[in-house]
Amino acid sequence: MKVDALKKSFTKDIKGAQDVKSLEAVRIKYLGRKDGQLTKILKSLKNLSVVQRRKIGPEANALRQEIEKALNERLGIFVVKQQHLDIDVTLPGKKIPIGHLHILTQLENEVRDIFSRLNFSVVEGPEVETEYYNFDALNIQSGHPARDMWDTFWLNQPVVVPTTDNDKKLLRTHTSPMQIRFMEKHKPPFQIIVPGRVFRYEATDASHEINFHQIEGLMVGNGVNLANFKYVIETFLRQLFGADIEIRFRPSYFPFVEPGLEVDIKLSSGQEKLIASRKSEWLEVMGAGMVHPNVFRAVSYDTNKIQGFAFGVGLERLAMIKYKIDDIRLFHSGDLRFINQF
Ligand code: PHE
User: Fold this and answer.
1) Is beta strand 211-221 parallel, antiparallel or unpaired with respect to 190-199?
2) What atom in ligand 1 is closest to the CA of residue 217?
3) Helix, strand or coil for residue 81?
4) Choosing from 27, 172, 174, 213, which is the catalytic residue?
């Protein structure tokens, strides 16, 4: 009977305990070593008759276990609550580091967008090319002195001798081989751009890298002419750099175009270092021209009906002008102080 009463009053007391301190008071009230109410009952067991002890003993011990369990559970709740109070919600949050697109990828996306709006399709091609696509089909047969314009990384050739001479493998020195690959499979009229990585086996300096990116352009159809080229390129450059950019067209030579030309952009203030190293305030950004008839012949187009222009623009060069970067080698340096600026 007494044990039952104790159980009831404990249940009431523990509900009333709202913090760690009052919980401790409840514990002492029932389980305190000296005067705990349950402790007293447990201590008095030895004075009881065997019959009474057999009845009350197990009841009292069960209650003790029950009380200890209830106290511990309640204590656990208070501790968790206290931890929440300890959180300083005014502290600045932890910044989760996330990556971003490399500046060249961002710029390439912008170039893709501009040409897409001009109704050009975007296609891509292989970085490992054959001598045929990189040179011969582009009117640069072996022995042609113009091959010296492209210092080439030749790959180890397969042990089995290639069936024809110009199956020899190399890292493409420009994106122009895609002109041939595309024209072999498509009929004009069309206009495409080909963004991609290219390789040159040459000494590096502030404006030359062995590994860089080009965007090839090719527009072919009946009556396509140099005025069309000038319009497309001026539109492209002004959209990319703003209407007041200064552009210069210069006669030049590439075996796969006739006439051939190069396009320069005037460097602005903030690029003194690059201007000084080049001794010129103009930076060439693309080679271009009207597609040479021999190139059309390589893909069996009728040179009497079909004309076209082609260009190859250097992506890094564009980035250097747009973001005033004075050394091309920074792009692939892996230097986060550079990368994170964009
Ligand atoms: N492929 C040339 C180069 O890399 C650039 C070019 C492309 C020139 C198309 C003319 C026409 O130097």
Assistant:
1) antiparallel
2) 9
3) helix
4) 174
Strand 190-199 and strand 121-122: the pairing is parallel
Cβ-Cβ contacts under 8 Å for 30 (sequence gap 6 or more): 6, 10, 13, 36, 37, 38, 39, 67
CA separation, residue 290 to residues 111, 116, 179 (Å): 22, 21, 13
Structure tokens at 288: 């271009």
- Domains recognised in the chain with CATH numbers: 3-85 (no CATH), 103-339 (3.30.930.10)
What's the pLDDT score for residue 164?
Answer: 63
Q: Is 308 helix (H, G, I), strand (E, B) or coil?
A: strand
Determine the residue type at 85.
Answer: L
Residue 233, burial from CB neighbour count under 10 angstroms (0-12, 13-18, 19+): buried
pLDDT, tens digit (0-9, with 9 covering 90-100), for 84-111? 777 888 888 888 888 899 999 999 999 9
How many whole angstroms from its chain centre is CA 77?
A: 46
Does position 161 have pLDDT exceeding 80, yes or no? no
The residue contributing the CA closest to ligand 1 atom 4 is: 174
Cα→Cα distances 76→71, 85, 243, 335, Å = 9, 15, 69, 50
Question: Residue 257 catalytic?
Answer: yes
* pLDDT exceeds 60 at position 1: no
Closest CA to 188 of 310, 313, 311, 314: 310
Predicted TM-score of the model (pTM): 0.71
pLDDT tens-digit profile of 263-287?
999 988 788 887 888 788 898 999 9
Q: What is the CA radius of gyration of the chain?
A: 41
Atom of ligand 1 nearest to the CA of 214: 4
Quote the DSSP letter at residue 173. Answer: S
Q: Tally the C-alpha atoms within 13 A of residue 194's C-alpha that lie toward its C-beta.
A: 23
Average pLDDT over residues 110-137: 96
Task: Calculate how far, in angstroms, residue 51's C-alpha sits from the geometric centre of ligand 1.
Answer: 110
